[in-house]
Write a structure and sequence with these properties.
Blueprint (H helix, E strand, L loop, with lengths): L5 H10 L3 H15 L3 H23 L1 H10 L3 H50 L2 H5 L3 H43 L1 H7 L3 H38 L1 H6 L3 H27 L1 H27 L3 H42 L21 E8 L2 E5 L7 E5 L4 E8 L4 E5 L6 H8 L7 E6 L2 E2 L5 H5 L2 E4 L10 H6 L7 H10 L3 H5 L18 H15 L3 E5 L7 H14 L4 E5 L11 E6 L2 E6 L1 H6 L4 H10 L1
Parallel strand pairs: 5-10, 5-11, 8-9, 9-10
Antiparallel strand pairs: 1-4, 1-6, 2-3, 6-7, 11-12
């Protein structure tokens, strides 16, 4: 389905004044209407039946007054009563069908967009997430997906049910009295002009409301995630004040939208009251003085009163669409964020045998983003001073190479570049002689095991978390890996053993237990290259001893790059590279570097020993 129905396009163009808005809706409609065309067709038939029965309800009031009230025809009364029962039975039945169908479509749209967005986010690089706050991103996306569903259903209901119902009732009105019908419509332009002004204001405030609500969600998530720090530093009052200010701001924006939206009520109520009063007075005058048929006046007034509800909904349609359009635009800003070419796997698949790592004259600076934070919105970008400067070194295959040096020297950046979370500005990185920039990232990363300073565990069981490293791993392999990581004993002591569900990021485990699970996951990976980023720096002595034993098991026969601040943990490394200010300043074995009394490593060793 490449285009929308031309009539629908004209309606959308009228309701959404700017080409950008109409373009967003057109794209959303093209992506969804074709998928659900059969369901939408059934729903539209139901809506047309509802519109027809509503219009016929007004029409039939004429015969009721004429034949029953004035004609005293009992048989006619029975027939008309039966018709009325049938009208409402049919209307109730088809209303149920269209409600279920549209709700099913809406729920499926939400699920499809959630899957699509999640898949797209997984394909974006680390740099994208470094300039977004995770809670803000998740909160905005959840709000916005629901807005997409509401927009499509609003257009279907407004375009098919309310508009057709209104047209049918207007037809009854013109059939009964074209002159009075024409007089009623002088109020229409006034309503449309007023609502257009309100809609523009709603759009601006809705954008502010979504962002503020996202900040509220962010503050709540941060408080939940950092509750121990929050309590330790008695930050309750400060965060309470911050959240109160945000919620008050969000409440004010929501109330402002409510006030603007509600202002349409008095306007439509007043104009409707004037129209009904005018019809009553003029129609009554014609019945009394000019022999106007009371049945026609009754049918006309019934149609006018029934037309009020769909007319009111259509009058507010643009305001509803403007608010939903904000949601839709933010969704597409994320979906339109380009996937970096480096994250698109290519056909150059390589299997590393030895795992020798070479950094050749590598220079790198981080991008810093300021300004807007979502999708394709423009941001100010500038670069930090170089974090790595013409760095060259070799990590020999099957050996352990340690990276040490003062904080901020670029050690963790080396780990990130090796996994292609970022790309060097200059220079090349090789593994087994292969330029990794020429490899697909999935192929590259599938041959690297990574243990971070802060282990990350995911929702699911212990077994699930270990199997993430290699989905085809057997239960026996998982348990063997846990034993090698000194984790099997505490896992089996858990309430359900390997099937115990993790709390948020393993909150029901100690720091040492989480780290040993992280190491077990790396063992399950069974990759030729191992990256350890200060894997023991946050542990107590007892936990460190267990983790260190697990690491020694993990590092056997693997090319290992290890970052450590505790020099005692890397004293047996085959090679130690000292990084200071992004440059290689020393390289050698532990004993040789300590012996160089004026070197950076020797000073770090003395500090560690003191």
């Amino acid at each position: 389905m490449n285009r929308l129905n031309p009539t629908l396009e004209k309606l959308v163009s009228f309701l959404l004044k700017t080409p950008d808005e109409a373009g967003v809706f057109r794209r959303m409609a093209v992506e969804n209407f074709g998928i659900y065309k059969r369901q939408y067709a059934i729903a539209c038939v139901c809506l047309l039946i509802i519109a027809g029965t509503t219009a016929y309800s007004a029409y039939i009031m004429g015969p009721i007054v004429k034949d029953v009230f004035y004609g005293n025809d009992l048989n006619r009364a029975i027939v008309l009563s039966t018709i009325i029962v049938c009208i409402f039975l049919v209307k109730g039945f088809v209303t149920y069908i269209q409600t279920v169908i549209l709700n099913k479509i809406g729920n499926n749209i939400v699920a499809r967009y959630q899957r699509r967005i999640f898949d797209h986010l997984l394909n974006l690089d680390v740099a994208f997430f470094s300039r977004q706050h995770s809670a803000t991103l998740v909160s905005q996306l959840n709000q916005n997906v629901i807005g997409v569903r509401d927009m499509l259903n609003t257009v279907i209901l407004g375009y098919v049910r309310d508009l057709v119902t209104l047209i049918g009732l207007i037809g009854v009105m013109f059939y009964r009295d074209p002159y009075m019908s024409s007089a009623v419509f002088i109020f229409g332009p006034i309503v449309l002009w007023t609502l257009a002004r309100y809609a523009r204001r709603v759009k601006v405030i809705a954008q502010q409301e979504i962002r503020i609500n996202a900040q509220v969600a962010t503050a709540m998530q941060e408080a939940s995630h950092g509750i121990s720090v929050l309590k330790a530093f008695t930050m309750e009052n400060q965060l309470r004040t911050k959240l109160n200010a945000l919620t008050k701001l969000a409440e004010e924006r929501s109330n402002k939208i409510a006030r603007i939206t509600a202002r349409t009520g008095p306007l439509t109520e007043t104009l409707t009251g004037l129209a009904v009063a005018g019809v009553t007075a003029y129609g009554g005058w014609r019945v009394i003085n000019h022999g106007y048929e009371p049945s026609d006046l009754t049918s006309f007034m019934t149609a006018l009163l029934l037309a009020y509800e769909p007319a009111k909904k259509l009058a507010r349609l643009r305001i509803v669409l403007e608010r939903s359009m904000v949601n839709a635009r933010m969704i597409y800003e994320v979906l339109d964020t380009p996937i970096p070419k480096k994250d698109l796997d290519n056909d150059n698949v390589v299997t590393f045998k030895d795992g020798e790592i070479v950094f050749d004259d590598v220079t790198f600076s981080y991008d810093v983003f300021q300004g807007a934070r979502m999708g394709n919105e423009e941001q100010d970008v500038y670069k930090t001073p170089p974090v790595l400067k013409n760095l060259t070194f070799t990590a020999q295959a099957g050996k352990t190479t340690a990276l040490v040096g003062p904080s901020g020297g670029g050690k963790s950046t080396i780990i990130s570049l090796l996994q292609r979370f970022y790309e060097p500005e200059n220079g090349l990185i090789f593994i087994d002689g292969e330029d990794i920039s020429k490899l697909g990232v999935y192929n590259l990363r599938s041959q690297i095991a990574y243990v971070s300073q802060s282990p990350v565990l995911f929702q699911g069981s212990v077994r699930d978390n270990l199997r993430y490293a290699r989905p085809d791993a057997s239960d026996m392999e998982i348990e063997e890996a846990a034993k090698s990581a000194q984790a099997h004993d505490f896992i089996t002591a858990l309430p359900e053993g390997y099937d115990t569900q993790m709390g948020e990021n393993g909150a029901n485990l100690s720091g040492g237990q989480r780290q040993r699970l992280s190491i077990a996951r790396a063992i399950v990976r069974n990759a030729p290259i191992l990256l350890l980023d200060e894997a023991t720096s946050a542990l107590d002595n007892q936990s460190e001893a267990l983790v260190q034993a697990a690491l020694e098991e993990l590092m056997k026969d693997k090319t290992t790059l290890v970052i450590a601040h505790r020099l005692s943990t890397i004293s047996s490394a085959d090679s130690i590279i000292v990084i200071d200010g992004g440059e290689l300043v020393e390289q050698g074995r532990h004993e040789d570097l300590v012996a160089a009394s004026h070197g950076v490593y020797a000073r770090l060793h003395d500090v560690n020993a003191s």
